Structure formats: C-alpha cells, structure tokens
Known about the structure:
By secondary structure, the chain is α+β, with helices and mostly antiparallel strands. The protein contains 4 helices and 18 strands. The strands form 4 sheets. The chain has a 7-stranded antiparallel β-sheet with strand order 12-18-17-16-15-14-13. The chain has a 4-stranded antiparallel β-sheet with strand order 2-3-4-9, with no helix packed on it. A 4-stranded antiparallel β-sheet has the order 5-6-7-8, with no helix packed on it. Fe (ii) ion (FE2) is lined by residues 152, 158, 162-163, 281.
Amino acid sequence: MIPNQWYVVLEPSEVPRDRPVGVVRLGxxxxxxxxxxxxxxxxxxxxxHRGAALSAGKVVGDCVECPFHGLQYDATGRCQFIPxxxxxxxxxxxxxxxxxxxxxxxxxxxxxxxxxxxxxPPLPWFDDLDDSFPHATFKDHWTxxxxxxxxxxxxxxxxxxxxxxxxxxxxxxLIDGPVxxxxxxxxxxxxxxxxxxxxxxxxxxxxxxxxxxxxxxxxFPNIWQNxxxxxxxxxxxxxxxxxxxxxxxxxxxxxxxxxxxxxxxxCTLSNLGNRIxxxxxxxxxLTQQPKRTExxxxxKLFQADRPIVAYRxxxxxxxxxxRWPR
Length: 326
Ligand code: FES
Ligand SMILES: [Fe+2]
C-alpha cells in the first residue's frame, strides 16, 4: 500500500449512526462509527485494555464503548472513562486507540492512511464529476491485491479477448499507442484500438496530440473513471482489504433524462450490464499470479502495456517517498 494518501474505504451507508462497524481495510482491522454530529470516525479495532474488538461494542454519545469492560473512547482515540476505576478517576493517557482522519465526500468515506499532519491534502476526486451526477453502485469482492484490479482497468489490450461479446466486440486487437500522461498523480490514457490491417501499431510519439479528454482516468491511490461521454461515466474504487483481497465499488453515472430519480433507475439497470462485464474481468484477473504486482516482477510486457508500466513506476516512487508506518 502507498502511505500518506486518501483512500476510498467505504460508502456512507455502510456506517450506520447507531452502532460501530468492524471491517478490514489496508490490512488492518478497523472500527468505524459516527459521533453525535454524524461525522465518521475510524480507529484500530482493538481496545487498549485487553485487546477486545471495539466493533463488538456500542456507540454511547460521542464515544465508542468496548464490549468487555466498558472503556469509552472519544473521536480522537482518547479513553474518557474506565468504569472499574469509577467516575472520579483520571484516565491515564496511555489508554488510547489509534485514530485515522476520515472525510465523507462524493458518496464515499475516505481514510487518510498515513502519518498525522497539519493540513492534509485535498481528496483526489475527479474534477468533472460533480456530486449532482445521478449514479448507482454495486460492490464486488475480488481475491487479489488491489494493484491487480487497478491494472486490469488500465489494460487496453484485453478488450477483444476478455470482452469479445460485450464492450470488446469488433476484434480491435491492434493497439496504437496508447497515449499515457501522468500529472499530479493522475494518470490519463487515450485509447486507440483498431482491427489489424497488416500495418504496424503506431508508437505513442507518432500519434497527434489528443484534443479530446482521455477515456481512462486513474487517480492515485485507488479511484478510476471511464469517461464514456459528457453524460455517462463508469467509475471504480479499488478498496484494499489486505494483500489478497479487494472490494470493488463500481458506479455508473448517467444524466439521461434530467430527472434524478429516473436517471438513478436507469443507472441501476445499466449496472446489470456492468456486472456482466466486470464478471468477465474477474474470471481472468483472479487467475493471475502472483496476486499483487511490482515494478520489477518478471512479467514480459509490450507497448500496449504502457499505462500499466506508468502505474507501477509511480506507485513505486510514492511508496519509496512515504516512510510510514515506521
Ligand atoms: S478489553 Fe476493552 S475494556 Fe477491557
Ligand atoms: Fe475489462
């Protein structure tokens, strides 16, 4: 995982207001709960006293209460109350649980997986995808490291094979370019797949500077968008569970009729098709070995894999950059 990044980790509906929820994200057991203002709180799911899971406890006012001996922790992770010591007792400072900064925005809960900092960077959201865009989500679980799931969505050569009867119809097996640009940890990919007419694929410098927005957009560390047009987008959040498990949040965004409730219904219907397409990817990606990727890993790559190489290079740089956790 890349340290010092905002990760999409959950959808807001997955953290109710009345109870804590335990999930594994970024290889850690975490508890999420909401304070009386409804703000999400994320902490390591392990009581400082004797290690019970706070997620098995309850929310009491602005604290989460451990189910074992009733210790209460506030939203900063500080223990406010040890019942066995009585109301009058001071709570020693060592009774703390590690707390991660969170934000709720763009229909997701985000977690800052990194060192504590004054003034955290902005969320890596897509500038052209505003929150009024109607959408519908479906979630899936893949038994691979999230790097494999991301690279599948940057892979332009798989379309006529994996999706031969859906989005890859037409046998466009020859790949010009693709053109790849990386700017501020945002990767853009312009895709030029065509039928093999016996000519050689164009090298990226031989392709004229693109004038239209890129088709594929990936923002580090874990969100991606397929810009199908002004009125239609598919996005994916690749939420790391651990080294071998990823939760995918696929969203279809559509402005079809301009009536949000109908547009959301159409997005839900469109997801029936997206589920089939993602299932085609899943069937193959789950067979890839090993389950996680590295910059130097012995795979034999070719020109069409340039977006994947760009992803691996930048990921490696970011990982070397961040020294957290120490
Ligand atoms: S283990 Fe949590 S209160 Fe004792
Ligand atoms: Fe695919």
